[in-house]
């Protein structure tokens, strides 16, 4: 009887978290997919109004806490932070080269800044410094170093994008959105792989980042095709 009563709180806590997670997933499934035209017309503040805030900001879900916290996997957290910095650099380069996409991309970039801040809040050894803050007047931005990792990890800012000229043609914008979608999928894959092998303290946050990056990729792909 002592063992049964001792295990009950753990099972109850797990059930509560699973229920919260299922509620979030059900809310995501109920969001209707927007049209490509609606995606491209979104301002930076229009993500939530279009019902995309729930999809893109998966990292905002509150994580369960434990009385006894396991050790933090600092190397995994730093790798995840490197992945987020690489995405920030990609967004900076895309915004500088395609100003017409600023309304959409600035909102998604802000999510990655939040992801980086969430990692730093959980793991004090992780820096919150962005690779760039604001693109220069000439449209250049400082490229981020490619994070160490296996397949699925973004490779930082693609060669040549730091000095790419402004091009707001339809084809150029579609290509930029497709490239960002691919980078988001790579980041999602990297977060998922790390989530499956890291400590229980970091895993929930990485799972949430995986969900957010996956939603980003779907949104960007929708804008790139029509």
Write up what this structure looks like.
The protein has seven helices and no strands. It is mainly α and 226 residues long. The chain has a domain at 71-226: Up-down Bundle (Ferritin), CATH 1.20.1260.
Give keywords:
226 residues; mainly alpha; Ferritin; disordered N terminus
List the helices and strands and how they pair.
Blueprint: H1 2-29, H2 36-40, H3 53-56, H4 74-97, H5 102-122, H6 170-195, H7 203-224
Helix pairs in contact: 4-5, 4-6, 6-7
Quick take:
This protein has 226 residues and is mainly alpha-helical. Helix content is 58%, strand content 0%. It contains 7 helices and no strands.
Low-confidence stretches: 2-22, 133-161
Order of helices and strands: HHHHHHH
Overall structural class, as computed from helix and strand content, comes to mainly alpha
How many strands, what sense, and barrel or not for the largest sheet? none
Tally of alpha and pi helices: 7
CATH class of the domain at 71-226: Mainly Alpha
Give the strand tally: 0
Helix content: 55-70%
């Amino acid at each position: 009887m002592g063992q049964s009563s001792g295990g009950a709180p753990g099972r109850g806590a797990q059930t509560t978290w699973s229920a919260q997670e299922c509620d979030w997933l059900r809310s995501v499934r109920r969001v209707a997919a927007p049209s490509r035209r609606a995606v491209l017309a979104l301002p930076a503040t229009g993500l939530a109004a279009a019902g995309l805030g729930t999809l893109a900001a998966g990292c905002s879900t509150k994580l369960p806490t434990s009385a006894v916290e396991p050790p933090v996997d600092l190397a995994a957290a730093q790798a995840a932070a490197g992945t987020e910095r690489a995405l920030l650099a990609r967004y900076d380069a895309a915004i500088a080269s395609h100003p017409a996409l600023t309304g959409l991309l600035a909102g998604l970039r802000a999510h990655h800044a939040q992801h980086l801040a969430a990692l730093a809040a959980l793991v004090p050894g992780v820096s919150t410094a962005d690779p760039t803050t604001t693109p220069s007047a000439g449209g250049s931005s400082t490229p981020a170093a490619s994070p160490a990792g296996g397949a699925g990890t973004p490779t930082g800012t693609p060669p040549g994008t730091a000095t790419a000229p402004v091009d707001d043609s339809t084809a150029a914008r579609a290509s930029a959105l497709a490239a960002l979608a691919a980078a988001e999928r790579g980041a999602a894959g990297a977060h998922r792989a790390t989530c499956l092998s890291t400590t229980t303290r970091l895993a929930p946050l990485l799972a949430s980042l995986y969900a957010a990056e996956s939603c980003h990729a779907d949104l960007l792909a929708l804008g790139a095709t029509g």
